[in-house]
Amino acid sequence: MACDEPVIFDGHNDVLCKLFRAGGPGQAHSFADGRDGAIDLPKARTGGFGGGFFAVYVPSPGDGDDKYEEMTRSSYDLPLPDPVALEYAQTVALSQVATLLELERQGSLVICRTVADIRTALAAGRIAAIFHVEGAEAIDPDLHMLDVLYAAGLRSLGPVWSRDTIFGYGVPFRFPSSPDTGDGLTDLGLRLIRRCNQLGIMVDLSHLNEAGFWDVARHSEKPLVATHSNAHAICPHSRNLTDDQLRAIADSDGMVGLNFAVAFLREDGKMLADVPLSQVLKHLDHMINIAGEDRVGLGSDYDGAVVPQDLTTVAGLPKLRQAMKVHGYDDALIAKLCHENWLRVLERTWGA
Length: 352
Ligand code: ZN
Prior knowledge:
Bound molecules: zinc ion
Largest sheet: 6 strands, parallel
Order of helices and strands: EHHHEHEHEHEHEEHEHEHEHHEHH
Radius of gyration: 18 Å
Number of strands: 11
Distance between the termini: 25 Å
Number of domains: 1
CATH class: Alpha Beta
Mean pLDDT: 96
Low-confidence stretches: none
CATH topology: TIM Barrel
């Protein structure tokens, strides 16, 4: 990395879905060449972006960016799309996994299966990618696909992306709203959690509603992790975490990644990009205050959301480090927020 500030390892991006929409694995070269998006190799070098969780996410048929228009109102309650069928989900998911594999084959990133893999990649200036599944629609009820994806490198999974699955009920995009919006995990969802624990796949709590969150808290043996969520006390959005949830994350020695999506940052919940970095720091302050400085990191949602105008791509990340400094965070805390906390929690979750 050209940037000599602490490298940023990030809890969530949707670049694989963006490349899927652009045409699939054949578009992987654009990641190295420079693409019209938030993350690519040239921008990563400029911003000191070291990698993070690369999500495989199955968009609903016909799903576009029109939902963001609705989210510019002063209150909203977006209907969740219908569940998607297994065969459709597997077709889309496999295309995105193929893109991830192609990115590795082209030398753009390294798919990391252990924390040692991540440290090696970061030290070599390579992008360290965790293969993550956001919404388990592509997993069959017998969980056979889970084993197959694990063998391909899967190390993190969210049972739902808001839309209902056979494993549970997600949280809708609603503002203002409590995250307590309905039933949580199904019995099959609990089986999925147990199997993830056995295999060493991290379970992601972002997009679960509050009941689902507590189901995982009761049944998972691992630290509780929300890869890309913010503080409900500051932005009362259904997707954000209450102080009780943040305390449970702290009690389990897990962590939360700060989401840059403006609708989860702004106090008015609007998906509008004119958000100062001071608002980002407000969430960090609150989450550090409640969960502790070892349990907060970043989870940008790059290539999957509208983000603050100063942080439109990973090339802008130096501005965030600078804002942390000016705000009074010392070097040790900044290093924890940038990557050290993620490595610590992954070590506890996967084993060293
Ligand atoms: Zn998400």
